[in-house]
Design brief:
Elements: H1 2-43, H2 57-67, H3 77-93
């Protein structure tokens, strides 16, 4: 049993060592690729920064500010509550304005199943004293 565990430990150790070797090799390859790319970029004729900007930013900012309306003050909590109350009272006074989608309030809507069957089945109806079902 100890020999099996020993072989298993050696196998795991070799796999871990192989993983470290592969990771080190990938790191060296990636680093060499980065150095080659940096050397190629240094030799290129492309500029590394913008030489000039042809847009006057002060006039652009002024034009943008002129087009953008001033933001209105957000409504206060009291104003929100009053508008919600007024809307609810208006809906209550006029049922045709009630929202049609009641999917969000399923727990408060009554569940009425269509009554296409009689309320009491034939077997559940009380029998008269003189009748019997034994033929």
């Amino acid at each position: 049993m100890n020999e099996v565990l020993s072989w298993l430990a050696w196998g795991v150790g070799i796999l871990v060592l192989a993983a470290f070797v592969v990771a080190g090799w990938e790191h060296l390859v990636r680093e060499a690729h980065g150095r080659r790319r940096m050397a190629r970029d240094e030799d290129s004729d492309m500029p590394r920064h913008a030489m000039s900007i042809d847009v006057r930013l002060d006039t652009q900012a002024a034009a943008l500010a002129a087009e953008t309306p001033e933001p209105a003050d957000p409504p206060t909590d009291r104003q929100n509550r009053l508008s919600a109350l007024a809307e609810a009272l208006a809906r209550a006074a006029d049922p045709s304005r009630a929202p049609l989608d009641r999917g969000h309030w399923m727990d408060t809507t009554p569940r009425v199943v269509g009554l296409d069957r009689p309320a009491l089945a034939e077997r559940d109806r009380p029998r008269e004293k003189g009748s019997s079902s034994h033929g």
